[in-house]
Design a protein that fits this description.
The protein has 179 residues and is α+β, with helices and mostly antiparallel strands. It has one domain (27-163): Immunoglobulin-like. It has helices at residues 2-25, 168-174, and strands at 31-37, 41-43, 48-56, 60-63, 74-79, 86-90, 93-107, 111-115, 119-128, 143-152, 156-161. The strands form 3 sheets. Strands 1, 3, 5, 6 and 7 form a 5-stranded antiparallel β-sheet that branches. A 3-stranded mixed β-sheet has the order 2-11-8, with no helix packed on it. The longest helix has 24 residues, at 2-25.
C-alpha cells in the first residue's frame, strides 16, 4: 500500500511541476523566423521564390503584415499568401509554421546577392493552466492567452550564374540560324 501511495504522490508532483517547466522554457527557441529560398543557386534572367516562414512551439493566432526588404541589384515581386498553419518537425521538435510572405526575386546581373533580415511580429497563443489537474482527462477545452512576439530572421545569399552557352549541335536542333 505504501509503495502505491508513494508512486501516486510522485506522479501527482510530476504533473503539478510539468507546467512550471514549460513556463521556464518559454522564450528559449520557441518563436523564430527564417528566410527560405526555393533554389540557392539560379541562372541569370531566372527568378526564385523566397518565403518568410514563422516557427513557433505554440499555435500562431495572427501574423502582422510585413514589408519585405529591398534587395540591391534585384527586382522583387510580391506574391499573395494565405495564412495556413501547419505542423512541421525539425529535428526532435514539432513546430507550428505560417508563411508570412512570399516574393519572387529576379536578379538583374551575375553575382552573389544578399537578402537582408526580415522582422516579423505575430500573436502566439500560450495555454493557460487550468484550475484542476483533471481538466484534460474530462475533455475540457484548454484556455489560451495571446501574446505578441517579434523575431528577426537571418540574411541569406543567392548565387547567380551565367547561362551556359549552347553547343552548335543544340543550336541546330532548335532550328535557329547558326551562321
Amino acid at each position: 500500500m505504501n509503495r502505491f501511495l508513494v508512486c501516486f504522490l510522485l506522479l501527482l508532483c510530476g504533473a503539478l511541476l510539468r507546467p512550471a517547466a514549460a513556463e521556464s522554457r518559454k522564450g528559449v527557441d520557441d518563436f523564430f523566423v527564417q528566410l527560405e529560398c526555393a533554389r540557392p543557386e539560379i541562372l541569370e534572367g531566372d527568378s526564385c521564390l523566397v518565403t518568410v516562414r514563422v516557427y513557433s512551439l505554440h499555435p500562431i493566432a495572427e501574423v502582422e503584415k510585413i514589408k519585405f526588404p529591398k534587395v540591391k541589384g534585384c527586382r522583387v515581386a510580391p506574391r499573395s499568401v494565405r495564412m495556413v498553419q501547419r505542423r512541421v518537425r525539425r529535428g526532435r521538435t514539432v513546430y507550428y509554421t505560417v508563411d508570412a510572405a512570399q516574393v519572387y526575386v529576379c536578379p538583374e546581373e551575375v553575382g552573389t546577392f544578399r537578402i537582408p533580415e526580415c522582422k516579423v511580429a505575430a500573436q502566439v497563443r500560450y495555454p493557460v493552466r487550468g484550475e484542476s489537474v483533471y481538466e484534460p482527462f474530462f475533455g475540457l477545452v484548454p484556455k489560451y492567452k495571446a501574446e505578441k512576439r517579434t523575431a528577426q530572421s537571418e540574411s541569406i545569399k543567392i548565387a547567380v550564374r551565367e547561362v551556359p552557352l549552347k553547343t552548335t549541335e543544340e543550336l541546330l536542333k532548335s532550328g535557329k540560324n547558326v551562321f
